[in-house]
Automatic annotation (TrEMBL):
<protein>
    <recommendedName>
        <fullName>UDP-glucose 6-dehydrogenase</fullName>
        <ecNumber>1.1.1.22</ecNumber>
    </recommendedName>
</protein>
<feature type="binding site">
    <location>
        <begin position="156"/>
        <end position="159"/>
    </location>
    <ligand>
        <name>substrate</name>
    </ligand>
</feature>
<dbReference type="InterPro" id="IPR028357">
    <property type="entry name" value="UDPglc_DH_bac"/>
</dbReference>
<feature type="binding site">
    <location>
        <position position="122"/>
    </location>
    <ligand>
        <name>NAD(+)</name>
    </ligand>
</feature>
<dbReference type="InterPro" id="IPR008927">
    <property type="entry name" value="6-PGluconate_DH-like_C_sf"/>
</dbReference>
<dbReference type="InterPro" id="IPR017476">
    <property type="entry name" value="UDP-Glc/GDP-Man"/>
</dbReference>
<comment type="pathway">
    <text>Nucleotide-sugar biosynthesis; UDP-alpha-D-glucuronate biosynthesis; UDP-alpha-D-glucuronate from UDP-alpha-D-glucose: step 1/1.</text>
</comment>
<keyword id="KW-0520">NAD</keyword>
<dbReference type="GO" id="GO:0051287">
    <property type="term" value="F:NAD binding"/>
</dbReference>
<dbReference type="InterPro" id="IPR014027">
    <property type="entry name" value="UDP-Glc/GDP-Man_DH_C"/>
</dbReference>
<feature type="binding site">
    <location>
        <position position="272"/>
    </location>
    <ligand>
        <name>NAD(+)</name>
    </ligand>
</feature>
<feature type="active site" description="Nucleophile">
    <location>
        <position position="269"/>
    </location>
</feature>
<dbReference type="InterPro" id="IPR054886">
    <property type="entry name" value="UDPGDh_AglM"/>
</dbReference>
<comment type="similarity">
    <text>Belongs to the UDP-glucose/GDP-mannose dehydrogenase family.</text>
</comment>
<dbReference type="GO" id="GO:0000271">
    <property type="term" value="P:polysaccharide biosynthetic process"/>
</dbReference>
<dbReference type="Pfam" id="PF03720">
    <property type="entry name" value="UDPG_MGDP_dh_C"/>
</dbReference>
<feature type="binding site">
    <location>
        <position position="266"/>
    </location>
    <ligand>
        <name>substrate</name>
    </ligand>
</feature>
Length: 431
């Protein structure tokens, strides 16, 4: 099957490379010429474990990238994996999706035969039916459900484990208005996965599919905020929130995942998706109190981390090490990383900030060009009067004598990764 993927970012590149690996011919369309050149040269444009090997095998071969939308006419199905950022008021900004839908419409205007357009991006309920489908219709002069089909197929992969998550998903959600051709084409696209892993395919309507994505992310974000809330209580009473989490996680109704309390959730999706669905609900007249509280708890965690540092260190004029800049390990993505409010808070206190991350320092240097970036955790800790741990990179778990080179070995751990030991003044955020 010939598949096209519009947008070659975290999701687009991952799914394009994986589709190629599943045996499909793939055309990837992006407006960024550097990204297109990288993919054709066999280089993944983003840092994602397992992606480089796939792009190096298929890039420029079974996976071809281009800036030319017209190429999608030659394909059977087009996945839209374009960004859906937020507006200043927190609501979803669908303008890039709208532009993409129009371009796809123009491209298939001349096509004979059926084409399937699949909304992979995260969009609030109603977006596909009310906005995107009419735009494809207007630009193509064709009728949805007759000349072309539209499906909503949200993506649940996580950064850092994107390839594995995509290749072995818990579920595949397909939202259509019952168009059999759309369902058949998507079944063919995903057949290798479904057969290999016996993946449940959840068929539903387009709005339901859109909402499932927000419910999934909202639930997970709220789960982390709830364990953070519980963790903050634990800290007040000298209780170890990780022991509490381990025990409650044994209850199948709770489950052991997403119970790691600490400095909170960041990334490109939980923050923008909770915000978008909250705003969408408010616009409809409903005040989503639980999700609002999840966001509020999350916003407070970085300041709680810094308050713990304040208890031990006068940050003003002191060298303070920030360990970890990516929003989670395994990625160079710093979007909404908790490191951002932490660095801001340290600078407000007049600290001399020295930061280290194995892969994300370059990204953070664009945001904070005037702080120091160390080549290693050891170099960041050397001479520092305090250290805060923001990302749970494995390598931080092996740090030991590096702390002895600190001016004062004060460590505030926001991710439960550093080993507590004698000689270190150690504060866990929720333990
Ligand atoms: N990042 C993630 O882990 C996940 C993201 N999602 C959703 O997937 C969507 C895409 O997210 P990301 O891949 O993170 O975005 P991204 O920002 O990493 O990548 C978007 C790509 O689209 C390209 N682009 C922008 N405008 C374009 C246009 N008009 N035509 C063609 N290409 C264009 C950009 O150059 C960029 O390469 C969002 O809706 C997001 O919420 C869903 C699941 C996971
Ligand atoms: O829509 C999306 O983009 C994606 O958002 C999340 O994936 P992602 O943001 O890549 O990463 P997660 O592993 O979910 O972590 C998100 C944040 O929560 C934090 N987190 C996670 C788990 C936990 O127990 N504690 C915790 O603080 C992480 O450190 C990170 O900052 C979802 O897990 C994916 O299913 C979804 O597809």
């Amino acid at each position: 099957m010939h598949v096209s993927v519009v947008g070659s970012g975290y999701v687009g590149t991952t799914i394009a490379a994986c589709f190629a690996d599943l045996g499909h011919e793939v055309t990837s369309v992006d407006i960024d010429e550097d990204i297109v050149a990288a993919v054709n040269d066999g280089d993944a444009p983003i840092h994602e474990p397992g992606l480089d090997p796939l792009v190096s095998v298929y890039g420029g071969d079974r996976l071809r990238a281009t800036t030319d939308y017209d190429t999608i006419r030659e394909t059977d199905v087009t996945f839209l994996a374009l960004p859906t950022p937020k507006n200043d008021d927190g609501s979803i900004d669908t303008s890039i999706m709208e532009a993409g839908a129009e371009s796809v419409g123009e491209a298939i205007a001349e096509k004979d035969g059926y084409h399937l357009v699949v909304v992979k991006s995260t969009v609030v309920p109603g977006t596909t039916e009310d906005t995107l489908t009419p735009l494809v219709e207007a630009a193509s002069g064709k009728t949805a459900g007759e000349d072309f089909g539209v499906a909503v197929n949200p993506e649940f992969l996580r950064e850092g484990t994107a390839v594995d998550d995509f290749m072995e998903p818990d579920k595949i959600v397909v939202g259509t208005d019952g168009d059999g051709r759309a369902l058949d084409l998507l079944a063919e696209v995903y057949e290798p996965l479904v057969l290999q892993w016996d993946v449940p395919v959840f068929e539903t309507g387009p709005r339901e599919a859109e909402m499932i994505k927000y419910a999934n992310n909202g639930f997970l974000a709220a789960k982390v905020s709830l364990i953070n809330d519980i963790g903050n209580i634990c800290k007040e009473f000298g209780v170890d929130a990780y022991e509490v989490a381990e025990a409650i996680g044994l209850d199948d109704r709770i489950g052991e995942q997403f119970l790691r309390s600490g400095v909170g959730w960041g990334g490109s999706c939980f923050p923008k998706d909770t915000s978008a669905i909250i705003q969408h609900a408010r616009d409809a007249g409903y005040d989503p109190r639980m999700l609002e509280a999840a966001v509020e708890v999350n916003e407070r965690q970085p300041e709680r981390l810094l308050s713990l540092l304040d208890e031990h260190v006068e940050a003003e004029g002191d060298r303070i090490a920030v360990l970890g800049l990516a929003f989670k390990p395994g990625t160079d993505d710093i979007r909404n990383s908790r490191a951002i409010p932490v660095i801001e808070g340290l600078r407000e206190r007049g600290a001399e900030v020295v930061a280290y991350d194995p892969v994300a320092a370059g990204e953070m240097a664009e945001r904070f060009p005037d702080i120091e970036y160390a080549e290693s955790a050891a170099a960041a800790l050397d001479g520092a009067s305090g250290a805060v741990v923001v990302t749970d990179w494995d390598e931080f778990g092996t740090l030991d004598e590096e702390f002895d080179a600190m001016e004062e070995a004060v460590v505030v751990d926001g991710r439960r990764i550093v080993e507590r030991r004698e000689g270190i003044t150690y504060e866990g955020l929720t333990w």
